[in-house]
Amino acid sequence: MIPNLDLDLLKTFIAIADTGSFTRAAEDIGRTQSAVSMQIKRLEEIVSRPVFVRDGRHNRLTIDGEKLLDYARRMVKLNDEAVMAFTKPELTGTVRFGTPDDYADRFLPEILARFARTHPLVEVDVECRNSEQLVQLVRRGDLDVSLITSEYGGAGTEIVRTEPLVWVVSQRHCPHLQPVLPVAVAQVGCGWRRMTMEMLEALNRPYRVAYSSMNSNAVNAAVLSGLAVGVVPQICVRPTMRMLTEEEGFPALGEFNIGLLRSPGKSSSSVEALASHVKESLGNLIQQPLMAAE
User: Fold this and answer.
1) Domain 164-255 fold
2) CB atoms inside a 10 Å sphere around CB 145
3) Cα distances (Å, whole numbers) of residue 112 to 86, 196, 226
4) What is the pTM of this model?
5) What does the pLDDT read at residue 152?
6) What is the DSSP letter of 172?
7) Which CATH code for domain 7-87?
8) SS3 128
9) How far is CA 91 from the centre of its chain?
């Protein structure tokens, strides 16, 4: 019979992994160090693998420990969501949520799925616009909360993620080898477009704007069709895209912040609950390894 993993053991395991110390973990969870050591011993007996090795004054995860840590975090989080779903009062109402379409493609499925599990009676009304337009809608009170590129938000924007911008092409095409570089970018006024143009000017690289649209799917279509080079957040790189490197003549473009902006005076339990899910979802997203070009 397969043994059960005790959530208390997993919480102790996570605390040690986060602090790097049995002593600090014991303080954080309110147990003695000997009790913590016994819990980890029991956990290692269940999985039949050592999960920590001593590294100087710190405790380092083994390869099996790193694998277990991912399962542990997900199991504890799912447990907490399940308990909250039955112990917290049911929230109702509507939350008007805004997001640019490129963020919607990458982030929205995870956000909405998690939110629906814990707050099934709250309706989420989603508006997809560019960040500049979304800021105006939030400031006017037409949206309750919005995910934006933070350079447009100003005061009151809560930074929830920092992402590098990267150059991308289709894995099956080489538009970056053309003497005059074709680029696919957003329309005038977009910060990413400005960063792209400034870098190309600094490189003294001949280029032309081959495709321009405020819709990220249109820009990505030009890239995936092999018609142009694009610039996207690294977390939004699609499996059929390839990131161009500095060795190929495309140096790092820099980073930008993704922010969360709330409408003044429009906060509610439902709004704050959705905002919390947005922050957690973006914080948990990990850049997946990209497929190698054939």
Assistant:
1) D-Maltodextrin-Binding Protein; domain 2 (3.40.190)
2) 23
3) 19, 32, 32
4) 0.64
5) 64
6) T
7) 1.10.10.10
8) strand
9) 26
